[in-house]
Amino acid sequence: MSAGISQPFRITTLPKINQLNNPLYQQALLPTSHNDSSNKSSDYINIGISGSSINQYIINPSPKLIFNHSISSIVNITNLDTFVYKNTKEEDEDIELWVYSTNMANSKNNMLNFFIRSKNLMNESNSNIISKSSLSLENEVVDLRIINKNHVLVVLNNGKVRLYKVYPHRKVESDEEILFKLINEYDSKYDNMNYTHIYSQNGKVHVFALLKISNMDTENTGCLKLLEVSQDYKIIENQSVIIDRINLNESKAQQFFNHFNNQYVHLDSVNKCLKVYKLNPSDLILKFVEQIDVSRFISSEVDPKTTSIQSVAENRIVLNTDNEVFLLDLVHKSLLANRTVSSNSIKTFQLLKTWYVENDDLLKDNNTLILGVSTKPTSKVSYLELMNVNVGEGNLKDSLGKSFLNKKEESGNDNKWGLIYKSINKSENELDLNSIFNELSKSIKSMDSQDLDKQFFKLLKLDSNKGYYDESSDRFLNSQHFITQMNELLLANYINKEIVNESFIYLLTHPLYQYTENLLAKLQFDFRLYKQCILTCPFIPIEDLMSDLFQINNIELLFNLTCRIFNDYNKAEIKQSIKKLNKFNVKNFIEFIINYNNYNIEKFNIKESMPKMIEFLNLIIDSIGYFQLDLITLKKMNKFIVKNIKIIKSNNDILNLLIENKTYGNNGGINYNLTKKKNQTSIKEKNMKFTIDYIEI
Length: 697
Hints:
The chain is α+β, with helices and mostly antiparallel strands.
């Protein structure tokens, strides 16, 4: 699969706080947990929202807030990190260590804060915080990292690096007690820490630090410090070297150090270029490598302070300007992919975090995520959003014909490839979605559903014969605003009146479609609509799925609902949802499970899914108890269980028979080669034939 960036999906709406809706401050005021970045398959996002709270979201199968810790409205969160302690005992819950730094709006009252919480997914409040403590600091924290289960590394702006020992299982009984203590400190002798990157490599913790020398005569001079945390938890200086003409960047979001390839990159947004440096592992000297022109992506209208860069894979970065995101290959100087974020309404998109894809992972999966914040300046509303990104293979094949160093020609004398590109995308440029929606909304009351469908597909230049979203041809329809408007229009005028629309089915299959409240219940009048919603509609709440599961009698729909629930939600969420149901009858579902052989199992693929079905049934029984079932249902379940135990026993006997024999005869027979025992007649090799119709599993 080639490199690409998907449209973002929304996690949550940020509080209406002025500074949070200002693109100049968003990156600094929305810190994320560092340890999350080490696992691109993580289902959790831990983020601090200055002036509001510290939150944990689960992003699969659908974004959901699972933990919230409130903070003062006048407090800014500057750094955040988390660590999970796994308990070996099944009855005990995992606990999480949260470490974050704060200051007031005037950058005073710098604090280092710790708290321990039980990782209870069913509790979304502060009540599961076991203990907490805080420490006042003389200077602002520029970076912090939980380096292992008992130690936290903290970097201050005044050039000091401190190591704290944490006592996660200590319960704080009074204000005098603390969860941590200072065990070591390193002083760089410089008072302006510009950029730091804390990382683990070869079992050791390292700190890459760039400090600005505060001498007026040396404004373009910096100092590189390479530190290491020893096994006895001392902070050792491995290298300290003065670097001339480096023009250190003030913004943390416009620079990064990639420890996988020892590459430091910073964005010179004024001169519109990337400056690339290489850290030589042999002499630990940071050397300038090249300057890369990125003026193609940074227009004169763009505020330089709102641009940012993040590393996503070796030699590949993500660059954002305004509401555009670009995936760049720095080796081949190519634009691998780009995405405009909801151009109709969103004016800025700021990068907050990327999940790095290591070279070993590229062989298996080159997909990753981008976390960002989008803003509507007119309404002063901002949103946390996630993007799926395919970083590509990083080879020349991905980059052919995609160089971003070849500036777009302003004259009409385009080359032949440019003309071809224009002809391909001509239809995209002709579409005005606002006008199309206005035209449909004006004529909808005078049209029946069939006439509207014809006009819908005609105006949008879609293939009406397909009737569903096709990624290869329909990518231009990327406005979530338009899709939401059409959804509301069709619901109000047709679906609520139990009239089927082909255009509504198309919307259900679109990846940007958003589930509306009680949609499943509204679509029960039509089998096709209802099934389509179950199969393709994203982010269906578990409450709606579970409610319908115990009401539907149709076998096919029952099977689809079961698969959707088990694929989208974990066991804890399923059990909790069952317990929240006021009134339900599981008889239909139990009958469906125990009588699966009576259905068209090949059509529904029931046989392969039976292990999950049985597991699902087990969750239901665990949640409601056997005493909630009537006697007839219990007898049927008993018969079903006894029958399957016999099948398992029979299969086991046959399997042991096959395993015990070393060789197999021709014609499907089994050859026994038995050695002669003392006082026993010789047994010649015999060909014993068994016929087996099937083995049930």
